[in-house]
Structure prediction request, 398 residues.
Amino acid sequence: MARATKIDPWTAMAERLRAEACDSRPEFSAELHARICDVVRQCGTLHARRRRVLSRSLGWAGVAVAAALLVAAVVVGRSRPLEPSGGASKLSNSAALPPARPAPSTESATWESGLELVTDLADHAMDQFDSLVDAADAAGRWPSLDHDGRLALESLGERLPINLVPMSSSEMSDTTESSANPQGSAED
Amino acid sequence: MAPEMPREAAPPTDEELARRARDGCAASFEQLVRRFQVPLLHFLRRQGAGGDAEDLLQETFLRAYANLHRYQPRRRLAAWLFTIARRVAINHYRRSRPVVVEASWEAVASGEKEPHQALVEEETRQRLWHLAAQVLSADEWTALWLFYVEEMPAREIAAVLGRSWVGVKTMLFRSRKRLLPLFSEPQREFSLSLPGLPPSEALGIEVPHG
Prediction:
């Protein structure tokens, strides 16, 4: 007596899906295989050529970028604001140049050596610039102080009582240089 | 005492071949092409590429070769190749309308069969997968195919589809649930309604035991 065994519908459906797929499975084609391998081989040669050209281009691009960075470093250094600092120590260092490094040959200039060169040059340029700025600052400090002193006395004179005679700037500078007793002090 | 036969070295795995190909061994890549030609071509044809399936297959292998340096050996190569094939197929669909039914036109061309007969037979043969293509999304269909036909685990299917493993499991469950009622329906309701055609064989899920 035949007994029907019901298969789980999920399993039956899975079996049907696999059977249908197996039924439509294509055969291996040697011709298609050869065609694909030929195309891949040709593209492989093309990729190798492109990689060589790209590496050469990157070398020149590295040199160009290094030059641009150098120019940018100089421009940035020149636009830095003046700052008073211990001029004596900086001045004494102005003559001490960084030890010269052998410049890398142009032919073998790589990306890393280009950046290194730019960094060294930028640092040296900034050191030189700092020492120049400090020297100029030291030379111009006293005249600036004289001018500032006149301004300060003028503003002080504006606050003095009205009966006091206001002093002109030339009278103020004479007073400062001769170190005479100032007239018309606030306590009088 | 008979000399011991030298043990045949086990064939290299797909991942080993990929590693060698990445290091420059052309023969290893050709071996990979040989191994994956049929499953990838099958997949691309079922995706609806039609006559362009071979071109898409070539495109798939070209991209794989160009990107071998990106392949991570810890990942199964089959999943990686199917990922590429799927993307190639998607790009192809953006350019052309997909072909759902692939009739055996060789038999039609030779005069063995009538066109409508070939169409009906093809549809009958691939009925469930055609139904799946109509009711499921592209990702759901792909997940179903990779799971049942390529016997790929859910985690690898997730890598192919760019989804989570849990998401793929859920997708498979829902896809089968939607397909099951269609699988259980009598076949004649879904065949082409052309006059003079013999009724298609009925689907049965009962297995008699003698």
The first helix of chain B runs from residue 14 to 22.
